[in-house]
Design goal:
The protein contains nine helices and six strands; from the N terminus they run ββαααβααβαβααβα. By secondary structure, the chain is of the alpha/beta class. The strands form two sheets. The chain has a four-stranded parallel sheet with strand order 4-3-5-6.
Length: 203
């Protein structure tokens, strides 16, 4: 890991905000630049021999193998659904999700290939808030002339599914995918864990 404030490793910090450079980590080289600008400049540099070449190739192969469809019980295989969307959707499409175990399908099998060209191709909660995906998709569909896809678990959808009235009322063009699991899995697991903790405390 990286030590604070002075890392043991040689540390190069690149950030678009000059106020962020050196604020937490003291680097050997601080570069005030945006990622597109830095990537363009770095691409022009002559290549160097890397001692990590074999390990990075192996990691890439493992990553690609991890994104191949997997066998799942039931009639609907979400890995195949997400990969199908990956093939059919334009790169500028916006995908949204709320919080829940179901979101792992999207995060594992979808690649945001249009992010560097179109920006804002994913809307998801950093706070772990359930019910975020549907209203986020509605807002994106109303504000952007792009395809919007919402992946939702059953419990997640039930929290804010009424926002579809806003979508239809204002003429939003979007695609909604609901993952029906028959149980509100994340909620059940959370309450089960709380119950076990309370049960142990009671005795």
């Amino acid at each position: 890991l990286i030590d604070i404030p002075r890392p043991k490793q040689k540390f190069v910090h690149i950030h678009s905000g000059v106020e962020e450079l050196g604020r937490v980590y003291q680097g050997d080289l601080l570069i005030n630049a945006g990622m597109p600008e830095f990537a363009t400049a770095a691409k022009a540099l002559p290549p160097v021999a890397s001692r990590w070449a074999e390990s990075t190739q192996a990691a890439r192969a493992e990553y690609e193998a991890w994104q191949k469809p997997v066998k799942t019980p039931g009639a609907l295989n979400m890995s195949e659904v997400v990969l199908h969307l990956q093939k059919r959707l334009p790169p500028e499409a916006i995908l949204t999700n709320g919080a829940g175990n179901y979101s792992g399908w999207l995060h594992r099998f979808h690649r945001y290939t249009g992010l560097h060209r179109f920006g804002k191709t994913q809307l998801a909660p950093t706070s772990g808030a359930m019910g975020y995906g549907v209203p986020a998709a509605v807002a994106a569909a109303l504000l952007q002339d792009r395809w919007v896809v919402n992946i939702a678990g059953d419990g997640d959808f039930l929290m804010t599914g009424q926002e579809l009235a806003t979508a239809t009322g204002y003429g939003a063009k979007k695609l909604l995918v609901v993952v029906k699991k028959d149980i509100v899995q994340e909620i059940i697991l959370t309450y089960h864990q709380i119950y076990l903790v309370l049960q142990k405390q009671a005795f």
